[in-house]
Design goal:
This protein has 676 residues and is an alpha/beta fold. The protein is built from 20 helices and 29 strands. The protein has three domains: 263 residues, Aldehyde Dehydrogenase, Chain A, domain 1, CATH 3.40.605; 218 residues, Aldehyde Dehydrogenase, Chain A, domain 2 (3-Layer(aba) Sandwich), CATH 3.40.309.10; 150 residues, Hotdog Thioesterase (Thiol Ester Dehydrase, Chain A). A seven-stranded mixed sheet has the order 15-16-17-14-13-18-19, sandwiched between helices. Strands 23, 24, 25, 26, 27, 28 and 29 form a seven-stranded mixed sheet that branches. Helix 2 runs antiparallel to helix 5 and helix 9 crosses helix 10. The chain binds NADP nicotinamide-adenine-dinucleotide phosphate. NADP nicotinamide-adenine-dinucleotide phosphate (NAP) binds next to helix 7.
Amino acid sequence: MTLLQISSFACGEWVAPDANARPIESAITGEVIARAGTASLDTAAMLAHARKIGGPALRKLTFHDRARMLKALATFLNAQKQALYDLSFNTGATQADNAIDIDGGIGTMFVFAAKGRREMPDVHVYLDGAPEQLSRGGSFVGQHIYTPLLGVAVHINAFNFPVWGMLEKLAPALLAGVPCIVKPATASCYVAEACVRLMLESGILPPGALQLVSGGLGDMLDRLEAQDIVAFTGSAQTALSLRSNPHILRNSIRFTAEQDSLNASILGPDATPGTPEFDLFVKEVQREMTAKAGQKCTAIRRIIAPEAQVHAVIEALCARLRKVQIGDPRLETTRMGALISAAQRRDVLAKAALIGSEAERVFGNPDAFEVQGADAAKGAFVPPMLFHCANPDSAIHVHGTEAFGPVSTIMGYSDLDHAITLANKGGGSLVASVITNDPATARHLALGAAAWHGRLYFNNRTSMAESTGHGAPLPHMVHGGPGRAGGGEELGGIRGVLHYMQRTAIQGSPDILTAIMGQWVPGAAEILAPAHPFTKPFGALHIGETLHTAPRTVTLEDIEHFAAFTGDTFYAHMNEEAAAANPFFPGRVAHGYLLLSFAAGLFVEPNIGPVLANTGLDALRFLKPVQPGDSIKVRLTVKAKTRRNDDYGEVRWHVTLTNQSGEAVAEYELLTMNSL
Ligand code: NAP
């Protein structure tokens, strides 16, 4: 096999490894298969390239432009993923592991593409919450906004998921509009490099948006500035040494860390042998111990079961672990491949020995196990190892040592508070799971443990067919955890994008805020055009364009007619005495839905035109009762516009209904789909 030369991509050029390159070995054979690393990388030029070329090009695009870019990128990678699978087997990953890493990474990018289009505006500013009225007259208002950081994101990734680990950081950063320099872990950087090559060759990304460092990062961290951000995934030890860099501390450079974690899974007291939950628990634990040979930051390291069930769990788990075929990951019958390297194997065995000083090994002998299709002496193979800790309250290593391989420890708990104490002894984790069919148990554990864990995963007979698994971080949900887990947070839908942006409080007049936000703020100027706004196509409508309707008097006959027609004969509309006795009404009042219907009748333009459909109402509030004899009229203003595709766009209208005294009686936002 020819040695793979793993390059970096700096300032628009591929830079081959030089004499200082590090060798990279196959997880299966132990042979050197690649080399990576370039001492001569000009880190200052790379950062300048990202800041001066990549950043401005990305920031010129709107959120929707960038979301479309992500979708194109994910579609492109999806069509080319076989090349990544072929390389990834060398890391010890089975095809099932590749699905987590490669398909999972591409899927994450698709989710951010979809969320960017659905949940972010088609402009350059993201709004945080609603405007705040800061003055009595409404001439001075406030709004929190997010804009992209003006620097560069440096992504330092762990070896275990070379594709997912890269794409789950890249997707939110690019959606935010921040250029990235990716530094994969050297041990599996040949897979990440191939993925970066595909993304660059696709021609979808603007120049400077993505650069790659294969091998050491050199002095890059010492050259960062306050608008830059470091997102790190790896061991607690490396995180500590990098985040305590005085340059990073001095300049308040954002540093987010996803690091190791002693994740726990708790079996509920109700989940006794014979229940679907007991079987589910054993299955999940076995899967989490052996997927990716246990090299998952979310793997279950501590199994917490009721004392009475510990031996039943050990027995059932051992029966499943016995069936896990270890070997060459390319073979279809292999269920667990190898660790990434011989060094990782040594590390896992050393850590397992530490755990073994406090717990008895009840499954898996690293000196005697079967490997199919590969030489166990040359590859980085280990068997799954299960330990039983009889004294979990006094154990230290069981709760504090992460053996980053297929190693897990079972321990018993006496009651739910004891289970909480044990789960929280990990000092902060990415995820803890609870398998129970008892909502009260779930609530008790959530209140006692949520603060120590970034994610709580509950599963039972109802959700098990569709649940995504204890170990799967989802792009929709936050990934990260307190304390030991690094204190960082990634993903979580649009929350993950905001980590790459600055939140700023904006204060000023409604007109100033409207201009900055790209959304009409109540109190800002209204644009009164002679033509009815419903006659204008999407592109011709202006933010702030307003229609004032003629008034309409609401009569008692209207109310009775509406009540009879709809069947809504609630007493407040029909019974004067009962309505007057109600603290909210002066007497009989009009139905809120009648007012909405009259409003639609007042502002409608009945002819065929650019308005295709009314797609909904948001934030509806009835502010003041309307009595028979009152007269209402409507103000309809274009608040925001979002183009949906090449044919139509959504218009968000601010609607206010007022009475004859000018008092607001109802307010809402109306959504219409308009042709372009
Ligand atoms: P690691 O040894 O800490 O390395 C992590 C990354 O840091 C690698 O890219 C490494 O590059 C880089 N690095 C090391 N020293 C550096 C330095 N002085 N300057 C700049 N970069 C440096 O961790 P790993 O062995 O790759 O990964 C295993 C660990 O990651 C486990 O503890 C696991 O729990 C954790 N992990 C956590 C998550 C999560 O989401 N929380 C996910 C996956 C893994 P080189 O490879 O070139 O040294």
